[in-house]
Structures are given as structure tokens and as C-alpha cells.
Amino acid sequence: MGFSDGYLLSLTTVSLFFSLSIAFFPGYDTHFMGPGFPYEAHPLTGLCPEYYQFTCPQADKIVISVLKEAIAKDPRMAASLLRLHFHDCIVQGCDASVLLDDSHYIVSEKNAKPNKNSLRGFEVIDQIKEQLEEACPSTVSCADIIALAARGSTVLSGGPTWELPLGRKVSKTASLKGANANIPPPNSTIQNLIALFARQGLDQGDLATLSGGHTIGVARCVNFKQRLYNQNGDKKPDETLERSFYYSLERVCPRTGGDNNISPLDYASPVKFDNYYYKSILAQRGLLNSDEVLLTGKDQFVAGLVKSYAEDEALFFDHFSKSMVKMGQINPLTGYNQGEVRKNCRRVNDAF
Fold first, then answer.
1. Whether residue 87 lies in the annotated active site
2. What does the pLDDT look like over 18-77, one tens digit per residue?
3. 91 a known binding residue?
4. What is this structure's pTM?
5. Cα separations (Å) of 25 from 20, 164, 214?
6. Which end of the chain is less crowded, N or C, counting CB atoms within 10 A of the terminal residue's CB?
7. Which one is catalytic: 85, 87, 104, 319?
8. 59-180+330-351 has CATH 1.10.520.10 classification
9. CATH 1.10.420.10 placement within the chain
10. DSSP 69
11. How is the cofactor bound (predicted)?
């Protein structure tokens, strides 16, 4: 059977349209076409690991190169970037709203109580974005940069890797109220932690697993002072604190002043991603109340996971990878009718 010239012309036009679409629109969402053209996205979120395969294949290498330099200069930076991902996703989804600075129409989440004078890593994200803009202009979103930086920081600290779904756009808004309401405070009870995680579609297993991110990093004295001097409003320390650990914390965190003094969340290996965080909890040496209640909060499932992870690092790594993927897919903005790809992670494009 032959084809008419008109049919062939139409077919050529359609092919040209899709070729131009892929060429001129970075990360073009062709997943609806089915497997392998050029990739298949998650059916619910629209994210996929190969999102930048054709538009910025060097993205992860650029992220890792910046991270290596930043973490070599400041080993705490790995934990800061991992925490930044959590504080972004837990508010209004993984949309890089946490990166927005104050402006005429943005009230920054950086001013929220859990973030102010605490959240770090913004300059590293800026550096990554600057290099990505040079290599692949207006292509890799700030939300994906945060997710890539969190994974890279985990790996560079000795932790697991995971297949990371990509393709998030970023929001044009921030939520100071949401940050204050949704980020778990350090004095949380187990019931409070479970409720806050459930609000984001995360379960008790995710709570026990993602808390393991505290195997690297530090906390400020103001966040654990209550445990040392007035845990139950009776001007007495938390009875669950191991005594020698209590005395060491007392030297770092005095009853009066010293609020910004820091202490490792994992005394045994504060810059190595491992399972000593859980071993510390079993030894009554969890730094924050929100750490210790994973064991003492009378939730048998969570406490059971703490014990399992303390015994089996490989199990913790496997579960952590899966929970990070799950958290990274909280309410992503995808497609062309939601969000944008910012040129500067600190402000929306309309501000330019």
C-alpha cells in the first residue's frame, strides 16, 4: 500500500514537532509516550531518575564536585545539606521553597523557628546552581539540586546511595507558617513525631529510618538544654540520660547562656554515616529528646526498628534509601503548568 504525499508531509511534521519539543524544552515530559521514549516517569509523581539524561547528563557530576570541596572545608556541611532536604520537603513538598529569601511578596521560611540561625548550606546550593547554569542554562531545578546534594552528601559521608527520581519544578511561594507548624521540634514526643510525619504521608517506619540522618551533624545547646535542667518542669534532668553523657553535655551547654554551643548528634562518629546513632540511643546517649523517644516513647514498632538498625547497618542503609526516595516525592511540582526552574535559587524568576 502506498502513502500519499499529504500523509507523508503530516507524518514528517509530527516527527519534527516532537524532535523540537525535546530539543528546546529541557527535561521535556515525554513520559506519557510510554517506556523508553526517552524514559518512563513515576505514574503518580511524574518524576524519574533519567529526567536530565539528554538535557544535562553531567548534572550529578557537577553536584558531587562542588560537594567534595565544600565537605572537605567543612565536614558538617554534609549533615546540613541532608537536613536542608528534609526541611524543604516537610513544609509544602519538595519545591525548594526553603531557599527563597525575603522579598516584597515572599516571607522566607528561613525565618521559621526551626530554621533561623540553624539551617545551613545555602551558599553551597548557590555554587552548584551557578555551575549548572553555566553547563545547562535554565534546566536543573533548585528542588532537584537539593535532592541531589542530600544524596551526594550521604554517599560522601560513607552512607548508601539510591536511585533518585528527578524532574521537580520549584514553587513561587514559601510558607513561614507551614515551616513552624510542620518541622518537628527537638523536644517532640513520639506521638507528636508520628503525627507530624503522617501529615506528610510518612509512616512510623519512615520516622525511625529518617531520624537516622542524625548519625551525622550537630545540634545547638538551645535544642537540648531542657533535657539537662528542666525536662518535666521540675528543674531536674531527663532521667533517661546516661550519667557520664549528661555530665559531658553539661560542660558544653550551661544552665545560663551558651545557646549556640554545639554538640554532635552521634558522639561516636559525628561525620561518618553509619548506624552508631541507633547504638547511642540504646546506650541512653541520644542527644535530642526526639532522638531518645524513638526508644522510650512506648511505640513498640519504632523501638523495634531502633534495635534492628543498631544491630544491622545494612538493613538501616536499605531502609534509609527507600525512605529518602519516598520523602523526596512529597507533593512535587511537575509539568509545564506548575512551578518553574529558577535562575537563582533564592528568588523567583519574576523578581529578575
1. yes
2. 343 333 334 333 332 222 223 444 555 689 999 999 999 999 999 999 999 999 999 999
3. yes
4. 0.87
5. 8, 21, 39
6. N
7. 87
8. yes
9. 184-324
10. H
11. Binds 1 heme b (iron(II)-protoporphyrin IX) group per subunit.
